[in-house]
C-alpha cells in the first residue's frame, strides 16, 4: 500500500516492527487475535521463543538464530504495545530502563571505576549492585525478586544460589548426594503408602535436590535435561528406523526387542 511506506520498507528496522505491532493491535483495523491478547496470554509464547533461541544456539544452527531472535524480539514489542494500549509505558521506556540499568551496573565501563578486576570480582560487584536495587524496591528478603514465572528448574537453582549467599548451603556435593538418597527413599515410601498429592510433593523435593546437585557440580540443569531429551530422541529415532527397515512400527514390536535396539543405538554412538 503506497500510504504505508514504513510497513513495507525492508530496511525499516525497529521503527517498522513497532509500527507493525501498533497496527496489529489497532482496535479499528487490526487483527482480531492480536487485539484480544493480554500480558497473560502472550507470556507462554515469550517463554517458548526464549527456549527456541537457546535451542538454536545449542544446536549451533546459526542460520536459524536470526529468525529465532526476531521471534523473541516480537514478544518484547508485543508486551510493550499492550502496555502502551493500557497507558502504562511503551517500547522506548523499556529500552531506556534497561539502558539505565546496564550503565548503572557497569561503572567500570561507563563510570570512574577501574576495569582492572577479574570476572569473579565483577560478578561479586554485580551482585552488590543488584542487592542495592532490590533494597530500593523494598525487597528485603533473601529470596525476594526471584521471578515466580521462571521455569521451575531454573527458579530452583536461583533460589538455591540466593540462599547459598548467606551460608544456607551444603559444603560440597557429597552431602547433596546423601540427601538425594534420602529423598528417593521418601518418594518410594510415599508411592507405596500415601495419597497422590504427597507423592507429587516428594517428587518435587527430589527434583529440587537434583537441581541443587547440578549447581554444586557446575552443571546447568536445563541444558543437561535438554541434552538428555535430544539423546533420547536421537536413539529412539534409530529404533524406529531399524524397525521400518523390517516394515514395522514401534507399536508392532515389544519392549525386549526395542530395548535391544536401544543398546545397539548406544553402542553405535560410543563407537
Automatic annotation (TrEMBL):
EC number, UniProt record: 3.6.1.8
InterPro entries in UniProt: MazG-like_dom, NTP-PPase_MazG-like_C, NTP-PPase_MazG-like_N, NTP_PyrPHydrolase_MazG
CDD domains: NTP-PPase_MazG_Cterm, NTP-PPase_MazG_Nterm
GO biological process terms on file: dATP catabolic process; dGTP catabolic process; dTTP catabolic process; dUTP catabolic process; response to stress; TTP catabolic process; UTP catabolic process
Molecular function terms, GO-annotated: ATP diphosphatase activity
Matching Pfam families: MazG
Catalytic activity reported: ATP + H2O = AMP + diphosphate + H(+)
Keywords tagged on the record: Hydrolase
SUPFAM superfamilies: all-alpha NTP pyrophosphatases
The NTP pyrophosphohydrolase MazG-like domain, residue ranges: 38-110, 176-237
Similarity section: Belongs to the nucleoside triphosphate pyrophosphohydrolase family.
Protein name: Nucleoside triphosphate pyrophosphohydrolase
Organism: Roseovarius indicus
